[in-house]
Write a structure and sequence with these properties.
- This protein is of the alpha+beta class.
- It is built from four helices and four strands.
- A four-stranded antiparallel sheet has the order 2-3-1-4, covered by helices on one side.
- Helix 2 (about 60-85) runs antiparallel to helix 3.
Amino acid sequence: MDDRTTNVPVLLALFRPGTRLDAVLAGLRAQGVPDHATDIVSPLPLSGLVHGVSVQTPLYLITIFAGVIGIGVGLFFAVGTAVMYPLMTGGKPIVSWPIVGIISYETMMLLAIVATFLVVVRRIRRGHRRGVGYDPRIDDGMVGLSIVLADVAMRPSSLRALLEEAGAENIVLKDERV
């Protein structure tokens, strides 16, 4: 077991799908809860349910960007090798474009897969490090609002009352190990 792990109190409120969370987040901000202490956990995209919440860059954009860089790396290796180490070929082109295409494709796929994997691992680790609460009912469609109480000056009872007023169906206080 790691000596640096601690128990962080996390308040997790579950809402029905389709619940507007703007008012809930505005109420939490008005009560002094900082934005970095709250996380919304949902199995589906939250478009239209939350406005003004920072959204992470979509994973497909990171994959496309890494693929484009991979194409550049493949061109560098295929064409760069031919330019740096010239060979006499008897009139044949030293840079064969079908081979360059294959090498570029392979490096594009390699960098896209590796970058996607690293970004996913980083997001998962950051979520666990921040103490984001989780409940299995979130996989069934519920939307979770997780509040890390280590960063909040309020008592859990006042937060619980605010969340119940907003329509939370279930509120659980957990000690997450981080």
